[in-house]
Amino acid sequence: MSVGTGSTAVDVRIATRAELALHGVALETPVRRPDGAGPSDDGHVLVDGAGAALPRNPNSPYSVRDGRVWLGDQDTGLTLTPVRRPRFYDLTTADGIPYERIARLHGADVLATTVVQTCIRYAEADRCRFCTIEESLRAGATVAAKTPAQLAEVAEAAVRLDGVRQMVMTTGTTTGPDRGARALARSVRAVLAAVPGLPVQVQCEPPGDLAWIRELRDAGATAIGIHAEALDDEVRRAWMPGKSTVPMAEYEAAWDEAVRVFGRNRVSTYLLVGLGEDPDELIAGAGRLIERGVYPFVVPFRPMRGTLAARDGIGAPSAEVLRYVTRGVADKLSAAGMRGADQRAGCAACGACSVLPAAGG
Prior knowledge:
alpha/beta, TIM Barrel, 7-stranded mixed sheet, 6-stranded antiparallel sheet, 13 strands, 33% helix
């Protein structure tokens, strides 16, 4: 890995955003995501007007004064505004469940939900080491399974009251061959009946029967995320012992079918920086995904409270490695004419958890 790529204004901006993504900011925020599938205990803010999910870290060297981000006594040139608490959080369903337990605001205008909050891979021997999908359930912050009617009710209110512009639906892996796609399809149909035209991304493991990908598109999903998190099999086995039993060949087949059904740059996959993959190999693997028409959403691993990784003292990557990988992937995306915003819905379209938008991705 050679990290010397010059000292342009773009590089300085990416470096600062990488530092913020890892070290966070000393600021309390009205909207936050303390647990779940990842990537960290974040506060939701706008950095230079764009959504960002940053760790809330009282020990961070970065602070906010008069709406600007400071590193000690140095003004970084970035502005930062906390996302306001949405009005739909004040509502409850007819059966008394707070809307916030059904779906949450991400960034300024993204509604996100985990439709099924349990996962067949959550036993410690199988669990992804960066995941706490069931911890929010144990804490009483959510419910185990959201019904299509509940999701439709919350989505309608979030759009009407708070200007939500897209929705993300993910799921824990279920026992059937659909691996959670069935519940997602039902939920998409219900939401779009209540809010026609709302862009929705669905996220699940590669279904055992790839026909479910067409079913999700026919239900009205705009985009799909099929998340590998790592491309190296040794890293996958170490970090995702249960999920890695799904061969990478199944991911490739699912990505190809999803591109065929949804279209180029309407399919994405998470790639976590900091799991031990060689940075240059990670960039090269992202390049192969781009050639397939799949958007590689590069996100830093950050040890979240309650994860096996945090328990074992595994730390985040360096800001320099994150900057290097982000810039390398962003350059490949730019060359291919792919932008996350063009997905219209989902993690890549939101971009808050990644530094890629700051790098032109």
